Give the backbone structure.
Amino acid sequence: MKIASFNINGVKARLPRLLEWLEETRPTVACLQEVKSQDEGFPAEEFEKIGYHAVWHGQKSFNGVAILADGVKPVETQRGLPHLSPEDVEDDHARYLEADVGGVRVACIYLPNGNPQPGPKFDYKLAWMKRLRARMQHLWALEIPCAVVGDFNVIPHDDDVWSPRAMENDALMQPQSRDAYMQLLGDGWTDALRTLNPRGGVWTYWDYQAGAWQRDHGFRIDHMLLSPEVADRLVGAGVDKDHRGREKASDHAPVWFEIQS
């Protein structure tokens, strides 16, 4: 079983590239972020033509997440993150979607960027990560096979970026962001890519600016966190880097992991 994640940066703008990737790599499950489409405009019929069924949580022009499954309909289990208290700020961002596919609970996330920091956007990022941890703790307690995948907008380690100095003031690398991510690992979740690439140096994102792709100035912010029930079955993980270099590509490359069925 192969589960993948792809920040597509606009599902309609990148649809040819997305369909191309799906047909070439054929993941069992594909989680999409930054769909940037309202629910009624999501091109589900285009995916059905090649055998994929979808659930999605859209938002006009921004955010948006979706879960596609090959040959079966994902069974949605959660849309949006629960609030931790009645005092929590109302959150209408489409950033979290969860579904059951093939005996695995899959959560697709698009974590807030948090820039500029310090400021309200960074505060929102940290509050969202706190809510995410609470949901992941709930999933952990269920003792079911589970994977939380997507664009976490966190660079966990210095060897996850081409130049730590270049990104040191970015919200993606702040100690608070990193600490919140490490708390998830401390709860027992396994970082699939890191586990199989312990020395780092694996990028999932290259900015459109300053020739970042051509110079390989990238970093790793797309992560796949596995519960023990999934981590014990892990047999492979990687990045489909060549898809970042294609015409009108997303600024992210797809990431994936594979488990024994």
About this structure: The chain has a mean pLDDT of 96. The first strand starts at residue 2 and ends at 7. The CA atoms of residues 83 and 90 lie 9 Å apart.
